C-alpha cells in the first residue's frame, strides 16, 4: 500500500509539473510579446516551476519522514504490548503449575494418611478389607499421577 501511495503522489507531482510547464509555455507563445519579453517571461516561469518542484520535493520528504517516524513509534508500542502480555501469560502459567503441584502433593499426603488408617483397620478386619484398601490406594495414586501429568 505504501508503494501504491508513493506512486500516486509521484505521478501527481510529475503531472502537475508537466501541466504547469505546458500551460505556461502555451500562454507565453500565444501572447503577443517581443523576443526579449518572451525570454524574460520564460525565465520567470522556469524559476517558478523550479520553486514549485523544490516545494513539492520538500513536502514529500517531510511527509515521508513523518510517516516513517509514526510507523516506528507504532511498531515499538505494539512490540511492548505484545511483550507485556506474553510475560503476563508466562506468569499465569507458572502460577497455575505451582498451584497444581501443591494440590497434587496435598492429595498424595491425604492418600498416604488414608492408607495408614485403612491398613490398621485391615489387620483387624481381615484380608478382604486389605484388598479393598489396596485397590482404593491404587486408584488414588493413579489420580494423583494423572493430576501431575496434567499439570506438566
From TrEMBL:
Transmembrane domains' residue ranges: 12-31
Signal sequence range: none
Keyword Membrane: yes
InterPro entries hit by this protein: Desiccation-related_membrane, YtxH
One Pfam family this sequence matches: YtxH
Coiled-coil ranges from the UniProt annotation: 90-150
UniProt keywords, alphabetically: Coiled coil, Membrane, Transmembrane, Transmembrane helix
Protein name per its UniProtKB record: YtxH domain-containing protein
Organism, as annotated: Halalkalibacter kiskunsagensis
Amino acid at each position: 500500500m505504501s508503494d501504491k501511495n508513493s506512486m500516486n503522489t509521484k505521478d501527481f507531482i510529475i503531472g502537475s509539473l508537466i501541466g504547469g510547464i505546458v500551460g505556461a509555455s502555451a500562454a507565453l507563445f500565444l501572447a503577443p510579446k517581443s523576443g526579449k519579453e518572451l525570454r524574460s517571461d520564460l525565465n520567470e516561469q522556469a524559476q517558478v516551476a523550479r520553486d514549485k518542484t523544490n516545494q513539492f520535493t520538500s513536502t514529500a520528504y517531510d511527509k515521508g519522514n513523518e510517516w516513517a517516524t509514526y510507523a516506528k513509534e507504532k511498531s515499538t508500542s505494539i512490540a511492548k504490548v505484545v511483550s507485556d502480555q506474553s510475560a503476563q501469560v508466562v506468569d499465569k502459567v507458572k502460577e497455575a503449575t505451582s498451584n497444581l503441584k501443591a494440590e497434587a502433593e496435598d492429595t498424595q499426603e491425604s492418600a498416604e494418611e488414608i492408607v495408614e488408617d485403612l491398613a490398621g483397620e485391615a489387620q483387624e478386619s481381615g484380608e478382604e478389607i486389605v484388598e479393598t484398601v489396596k485397590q482404593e490406594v491404587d486408584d488414588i495414586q493413579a489420580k494423583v499421577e494423572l493430576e501431575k501429568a496434567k499439570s506438566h
